[in-house]
Write a structure and sequence with these properties.
Elements: H1 4-23, E1 35-39, H2 42-51, E2 57-61, H3 76-84, E3 88-90, H4 93-96, E4 107-109, E5 121-123, E6 130-132, H5 140-157, H6 162-189, E7 196-201, H7 205-210, E8 214-220, H8 229-241, E9 246-249, H9 256-265, E10 268-271, H10 284-299
Parallel strand pairs: 1-2, 1-3, 3-4, 7-8, 9-10
Antiparallel strand pairs: 5-6
Helix pairs in contact: 5-6, 6-10, 8-9
The chain binds zinc ion (ZN).
């Protein structure tokens, strides 16, 4: 366990180990404690779990799945966990920067490994300013684009695991290509491609771009920022003109505006799951396939 007190208590034992290591060619191998990695949100853990060797690392996630990835208040126990763990990974500044409150210098952002030409920008409706959309993990090929620099970073930090990390990276890259291909052809065959979609919050940009769905908009630009009547009316009109059957909700968002919109535009409500809150989502592939399946279902 990565308990700082345990480290102090272990000191004499570590000294003996060190002396043995100097004295003889024997090195303590195997049975080592896994390296603890703290992740801000579940998608970060799902991506790292594909690249890091399972037996040597333990991943934990801070944000509870019922909470929004954008707004989360760290409890004192979380802040302590963060300040005592050397390895903290998060998604990116415009999403889960709440993690920086307790861990400024060493937290590693997956978004910092995304090449700029992959960025999608979102416009703040009030200020008119453009900023990079952080929800890149919903596009398997954007995740693939993150892998070279992520692998380089992990190899630099965990040198002895580098060969396995590189192998996992290759396998995951292939898997990401395969997922993209199978969803792409499924959407093309079933005329999901090109159809319009409205979601609860603004998270589907990268997915929609990759799989050629027309993203008509979202009820909330950000979770917690409810749409005004003007916006609701324009979404109702869009839903009608695009003959939508479904409005897509998500577990982390209050459903009042969604219910209003669904009633006014005669839409069914189907829940998507951008962070993988559902228990059935255990891997990155599960996360993408779940959302693709539900989008497909909502357009049938
Ligand atoms: Zn979001």
């Amino acid at each position: 366990m990565a308990n700082p007190l345990a480290k102090v208590a272990m000191k004499p034992a570590r000294l003996i180990t060190l002396l043995l290591a100097i004295w003889s060619p024997w090195r303590p191998v195997g049975g080592a404690e896994p390296i603890e990695i703290v992740c801000s949100i579940k998608p970060v853990a799902l991506i790292l779990a594909e690249v890091l060797p399972k037996s040597a690392f333990r991943l934990t996630t801070l944000a509870p799945l019922a909470a929004s990835a954008h707004y989360f208040e760290l409890k004192t126990s979380d802040a302590m966990k963060l300040s005592s763990s050397p390895w903290v990974f998060y998604l990116g500044k415009s999403l889960d920067s709440w993690i920086l409150g307790a861990k400024k210098s060493q937290a590693i952002a997956l978004m910092s490994f995304l090449p700029e030409h992959e960025f999608l920008y979102i416009k703040d409706e009030h200020t008119g300013r453009q900023s990079p959309d952080p929800h890149f993990w919903l596009d398997p090929l954007a995740v693939k684009a993150v892998l070279p620099k992520l692998t380089e970073n992990l190899c630099g930090n965990f040198e002895s695991h580098c060969p396995q990390i590189k192998l996992n990276n290759q396998n995951f890259s292939l898997q990401l290509q395969e997922i993209t291909k199978s969803i792409g052809s499924e959407f093309a065959q079933t005329s999901v491609k090109g159809r319009g979609i409205i979601t609860a919050h603004d998270f589907l940009g990268y997915f929609a771009r990759r799989f050629e769905i027309t993203y008509l908009g979202s009820i909330e630009e950000l979770p917690g920022k409810e749409a005004g009547p003007k916006k609701l009316i324009s979404l109702i009109e869009l839903a009608k003109s695009h003959h939508l059957k479904t409005i897509f909700s998500e577990p982390q968002i209050a459903d009042r505006s969604i219910k209003n919109l669904a009633e006014a535009a005669k839409l069914q409500i189907i829940a998507l799951d951008p962070v993988g809150a559902s228990k059935e989502i255990k891997t990155y592939a599960d996360l993408i396939r779940f959302n693709a399946r539900e989008i497909h279902r909502g357009m049938e």
